[in-house]
Design a protein that fits this description.
The complex is a heterodimer of chains A (about 110) and B (about 170). With about 110 residues, chain A is of the alpha+beta class. Chain A is about 50% helix and about 15% strand. The longest helix of chain A is centred in the middle third of the chain and has 56 residues. The radius of gyration of chain A is 36 Å and the shape is rod-shaped. The relative contact order of chain B is 0.11. Classes of the chains: A alpha+beta (about 110), B mainly alpha (about 170).
Chain lengths: ~110, ~170
């Protein structure tokens, strides 16, 4: 390369640059170390909450369906609904009625 | 045989010792603030440190120059946007001389130089500053900027011409 004439003066950086750089690197590393468990914990909690909410929806759907069916079948012990049957189960609380919903028993040939 | 990737702490330190000053001078001509220019250089070195495992020693120089260039441009754009949004006309109108050395540099000539560099188009400024401070060949700079070596030479020539014109110096000496 040709040696071009220098127009721009070469300035010295502020003193203590290496020490400042090292301090920044160390603080960066320690910040990562401090935040890593917190971030991981937060992420795990979010995943667990999502799984819980998803599974909660899955549980609630049949429960609600059973409750509705139970309300509509007041006074009737057994009812056929679209190839399914609902059987009343014993309950200790008179205000609570429990039903088991399952596939209908095959019709007898008689 | 290819060098195994990875930069040791000692190599990182050597790089800093060798490149701190030229990188600082490049960054300073973008942001015109001593501390901010040093922060940019430090940001580039921290990025290099974070990527040291996959970095080849031979590409570290190139990585640092490109990083400082990009960070300086970003910082400059951000400052200009801030100045535009806040209407603070004085924010970048003149460099903030924040060290004794800068106070020495507060001369009419340096103010003119600052203004002249500020007026340079980005392409010319980049080439001029790399040629001035990196000590890289035109070929190396052309590889760094992905432009032909001839373009590096012509851009540098144009930049020098504009600076000389700003100073009222004839171009015969080049």
């Amino acid at each position: 390369m040709s040696s071009p004439e220098k127009l721009l003066p070469v300035l010295s950086p502020p003193p203590g640059g290496w020490e400042r750089l090292q301090a920044r690197r160390e603080s960066f590393s320690s910040t990562v170390v401090e935040w890593l468990p917190l971030v991981s914990g937060g992420l795990a909690a979010t995943v667990l909450a999502a799984v819980f909410l998803a599974s909660r929806n899955e549980v609630r759907m049949p429960f609600n369906a059973a409750r509705l069916m139970g309300e509509r079948s007041e006074g009737v012990g057994l009812r056929m609904l679209d190839q399914r049957q609902m059987t009343a189960l014993p309950s200790d609380d008179p205000n609570v009625r429990l039903y088991w919903v399952g596939p209908a028993a095959p019709a007898s040939s008689d | 045989m290819r060098e195994a990737p990875g930069i040791s702490e000692a190599e990182w330190r050597d790089l800093y010792g060798r490149l701190e000053r030229p990188l600082y001078n490049l960054a300073y001509r973008y942001v015109w603030r001593a501390q901010e220019a040093q922060d940019i250089v430090h940001d580039a070195f921290l990025q290099l440190w974070a990527k040291r495992a996959g970095m080849l020693g031979e590409t570290a120089d190139r990585y640092l120059w490109i990083s400082v260039l990009n960070l300086s441009r970003k910082r400059r754009r951000w400052s200009r946007a801030k100045r535009f949004l806040t209407g603070d006309a004085e924010l970048l109108s003149l460099p903030a001389f924040d060290s004794p050395e800068m106070n020495v540099a507060r001369t009419q000539q340096d103010s003119s130089l600052h203004a002249a560099i500020e007026r340079l188009p980005e392409k010319l400024r980049t080439v001029l500053l790399l040629v001035e401070f990196s000590e890289m060949s035109y070929e190396a700079i052309s590889e760094l900027l992905s432009i032909p070596a001839g373009t590096v030479a012509s851009r540098r020539h144009l930049a020098m011409k504009q600076l000389r014109s700003a100073f009222g110096i004839g171009s015969a000496s080049e």
